[in-house]
Specification:
11 helices; globular
């Protein structure tokens, strides 16, 4: 139950962070948004260090660095994906893709899914098709580029979560600190190389920083949940985060949700719930 609650908290934080990150990326180049979000996230993890401890062992350093590279890719791909929109389609696609790899890793490591889980996996794939299928003329249609970026973002998120889970359980927040330091360095290096292509628009500093803080909180809650529960279950419960993104997109941006999309979102919810029951 503790792992489930932590995973739900992580899901909520991820959903809010993704919405704000996507919103910020509509005001300026995605790298400008990430340049603010990543350091803000690192600051939160450094503040948590004295309270939660950190052991910088070889395993923590290696897996933390790997998660940082994946995190940098996830930041950029996800925020750009959500900036293109529509959020209420692309966010669930990303979430379902991000859930598949951790489930597979968990099963390979000896975790077992019951009958509900066996039914939930193919149902999740059906949900992806329903959510990303054609829409009527009155509904927003995601571009092929946006869908490809959503799949890429989901894969990057999945790798980040798997790498964090592989870090030693007694390393405290060390993997998070190392990972965020690496992702910040990668982001700044990419921004330096692409400086002339970033445009003159200033990022939404408050929105971008808040997105980074929430992402850090989400990572911490996921790490704690994965250390106290099964990766396969924790990953799919965390994958509920599009619920927050979709609701915020509908209330703040007035994005429409077509009936077919609602069926897809409902199918996704059922799939994730079945997986969580295991």
């Amino acid at each position: 139950m503790i792992a489930l609650l932590l995973a739900l908290g992580s899901s909520l934080a991820y959903g809010c962070a993704d919405f704000l990150g996507g919103l910020g990326s509509r005001k300026a180049h995605v790298l400008r948004t990430v340049m603010v979000a990543a350091p803000a996230s690192l600051a939160v993890e450094l503040l948590l260090w004295p309270f939660l401890g950190a052991s910088f062992s070889t395993g923590a350093l290696a897996w933390g660095a790997a998660s940082g590279v994946a995190s940098a890719a996830a930041f950029a791909l996800l925020y750009r994906t959500l900036a293109i929109g529509p959020m209420n389609v692309l966010s669930p696609v990303t979430a379902l893709v991000s859930a598949m790899l951790p489930v597979g890793v968990g099963l390979l490591q000896g975790e077992h899914l019951g009958m509900a889980g066996v039914a939930g996996l193919p149902l999740a794939l059906v949900a992806v098709v329903l959510v990303s299928a054609g829409h009527s003329a009155g509904s927003a249609r995601p571009s092929r580029t946006a869908l490809l970026m959503a799949f890429g973002a989901g894969g990057a998120i999945a790798l980040q979560l798997v790498f964090l889970h592989q870090a030693p359980s007694d390393s405290g927040v060390a993997p998070l600190i190392v990972g965020r330091a690496v992702s910040s360095a990668v982001t700044l290096a990419a921004a330096g190389l692409m400086y002339r292509r970033l445009g003159s628009e200033k990022p939404a500093y408050g929105i971008s920083a808040t997105a980074g803080v929430l992402d850090s909180v989400a990572n911490l809650l996921f790490l704690l949940a994965a250390r106290s529960g099964d990766l396969a279950v924790v990953a799919v419960v965390t994958a509920l985060y599009p619920a927050g993104t979709v609701l915020l997109a509908r209330s703040v941006l007035a994005e429409r949700i077509h009936r077919g999309q609602l069926v897809g979102l409902g199918t996704a919810a059922v799939a994730v719930s079945l997986l969580a029951l295991t």
